[in-house]
Amino acid sequence: MLKKFVLFFALATLLAGIAPSCKVSYSFTGANISPAVKTYSVYYFPNRARLVNPTLSQSFTEALREKLQRQTSLNELTENGDLIFEGQITGYDVRPMSIQKDDQAAQNRLTISIRVKYTNNIDPDQSIEQTFSAFEDFDSSSSLSAVEDGLVPEIINKLTEDIFNATLANW
What domain of life does the UniProt record list for this protein's source (predicted)? Predict the structure, then answer.
């Protein structure tokens, strides 16, 4: 495995030497960010859902900031970064999923939806506005309040991963 890794980098270095006008950038985080981009800003995501989790806005906003800090070398600005993430939480819903006898739900699904406006001030063609949703299922014998503290961080993790991939990884 190590031999393949060394061979890959040797080949990449050789190719870079042959074509010096070409720029090859590698990332182990999956981010595909222009070298001209130096900063980002994450604005607070207010909760506009009908059912409100009082800590969701803060938790999501912080999780997105932390994701960008961990997986990029960009500097965070409070506002007017080269990349701007803003939006709102538009959905926080619980719905029955699998129905068993007597029309009782065997499982419920908690879904969180977030509308994101991503602005790339360096390359405006990369900007997007999109809604992201993620969910987790839970046993219907449990109340939402009993499982919420465990489910919400898992859903936030899925959402931040999806947002990162759609905006910076160009997947």
Answer: Bacteria
pLDDT given at position 145: 93
Q: Could you state, in order of their start, the residue ranges of all structural domains in the chain?
A: 34-167
For 70-160, list the strands marked E by DSSP: 75-76, 83-96, 99-100, 104-105, 107-120, 128-139
- Triad 167, 75, 59: Cα angle to 5°: 65
| Residue 130 backbone dihedrals phi, psi, to 5 degrees | -155, 150
How far apart are alpha carbons 8 and 67 in whole angstroms?
A: 28
pTM over 0.85: no
Residue in this structure with the two tokens 């870079």, named with its chain if needed: 16
CATH 3.20.20.80 fits 34-167, yes or no: no
What tens digit of pLDDT does each residue of 35-51 get? 999 999 999 999 999 99
Cα Rg of the chain (Å, integer): 20
pLDDT for position 171: 55
